[in-house]
Write a structure and sequence with these properties.
By secondary structure, the protein is α+β, with helices and mostly antiparallel strands. The protein has helices at 2-19, 39-55, 79-83, 98-102, 188-196, 209-221, 261-271, and strands at residues 26-28, 36-38, 61-65, 88-96, 109-116, 119-127, 132-136, 141-145, 148-152, 162-164, 181-183, 202-205, 225-228, 253-256. Helix content is 29%, strand content 26%. The strands form three sheets. The protein has a seven-stranded mixed β-sheet, with helices on both faces. The chain is globular. The relative contact order is 0.14.
Length: 273
Amino acid sequence: MLEKILEFMKSAGEIAMNNYGRTDNSEFKSEEAHDLITITDRAISDLFQKFIADNFSDLDYCIVDEESMDKLTVGGGSPFDEIAKHEWAFVLDPIDGTVGYALEIPMFGISLGVLKNGKPYCGAIYAPALGELVYCDTEQAFWIKNNTKIELKPSELGKLPIIFSLGRYVRQSDNYEPRYLQAGYNSMTTHFLYMATGRGRCNYFKWHIWDMGGAWAIMKFLGFEFMDFKTGKILENLSADKFNDKLKIKNVHIVCKPADFEFFKGIAEETGI
């Protein structure tokens, strides 16, 4: 399965880079500044529908794709009703960081995850403009950077806590002295790729399943967990008690090593989450 997924990621990356920098590439889906779609999103989404049909027709599956959610909720039902009917769910974000991509900023990615009975099974996250891909199954994880393949294993990260997305959820007081470096690239795929490769230690997450789908299995394999900010409970599966009907996670989750949870929760509490 993973070999086929990597074939798709390569093709999707080629589409993304072929359209990169085109001035006619995007349009707004609504009046929201971030609600943008590109011809690349549509092209990768269309390719994915055909790719899955051609390669996994023997599986009982559904597709969870940001750009084709209408196919998952035909008749106005809950997406969980459809997902629950199938053993496998293929979760795609064709372009994560669409605004940056449309503006020719390289911090964007392609995310593809596979869930089995609602739980993370394998996944791949790809930043084609950066030349970096991370993928894993249940037994191994790898990082490809500029055509060099490196095996990734769970390890202790350095003491310097680089944090992603904190600024989205907190109000920093004037007298607060930060004990961390903060970054944000408007692309969860990029954030997770940097965490998987030792360049980040924590991410604050409150987005959709497709924003985390490709990274979920990778993060778990490397010892990171999605943990509810309020309770510390680890996210184990895609379910209606954790996600709303638009498949957006209900509560802020801290993505880090479990041993680091209280530290990063404390930072957020100090700054006013």
